Amino acid sequence: MESSSNRSPELLEVQDLCFTYPHSGGNKGVQDISFKISRGEIVSFVGPSGCGKTTLLRLLAGFLFPREGEISYKGLPIKDFLKARKIGYTNQIPCLLPHRTVEENIMLPLEIHPSFQKRNIKEKCTNILTAFNILQYKNYYPHQLSGGTSQKVSLATAVVYEPELLFLDEPFSSIDEFTRERLDQDLVEVSRMSEYTTFLVTHSLEEAAFVSDRIFILSGSPATIVGEMKIKFSCSRNLALKQRVEFFETVNSLKKIIERNEQKK
In this structure, are residues 173 and 151 in contact, taking their beta carbons and an 8 Å threshold? Predict the structure, then answer.
């Protein structure tokens, strides 16, 4: 596996995490979730629709606050880390400003980030445009882009100031399969190069197997962790991997874990 052997100890730790939806009569969205993540890992959450995957992602990103349990980053409460604005977040619908070009959209986080040197904005933007192979679209407006390119721009905007934590909520679910495969490969390459710690919510078991170092399988609502799979391949994460027997075996193993959990209900 191509993952770094020099990863630091646990970067993010979740202990006994619970969340109850307000005004829901006590219905829990997340219950008793605990895990530890190291720097540079790509982690996926899979599970039934409506089970609480997005709720868990928003808790980790600090958009929601747990009713019980703790989330810590480098040993400190996650709320202290969030003040530094070092997270990136992308969801299913690209969040691009229609009146700004691709380049201007990507520059926006750099313009408002408190610690970024303003004189480096143009250079940094060009570098990320090149990394995502969208430099030719820098003067386009969002309405001129295809769905796949829009999501590339949205992802580039999320990572341009090099966040330490990257949260992705089904970012490629509405894109055709061919484009999605290319974006999955871009995600792996950029995450490996910059050592982002990445959390991905997806319904695609193939996508989870392709991009992830670890996969957490969640139960139906309230979401609890019912399985975990560490992903190791003998070759690089490129599109040729999907034609190898070991990839099919990994996806099938993941399906069996999910099926066993369904049979227990």
Answer: no
Three-class SS state of 57: helix
pLDDT tens digits along 165-179:
899 999 888 788 888
pTM comes to 0.87
Taking the C-alpha atoms of residue 54 and residue 126, their distance in angstroms, rounded to an integer, is: 32
How many domains, the chain? 1
Q: Quick one: average pLDDT of 66-83?
A: 79
138 within some domain: no
Domain interval for residue 19 = 1-84+199-205+212-265
End-to-end CA distance of the chain: 35
Q: Is residue 264 part of a domain?
A: yes
The CA distance from 201 to 207, in Å, is: 10
Peptide bond into 222 cis (omega under 30): yes
Residue 97 placed within a domain: no
Q: Is residue 216 within a helix (H) or strand (E), and if so which, with residue range?
A: strand 214-218
The pair of structure tokens assigned to 9 is 């100890």
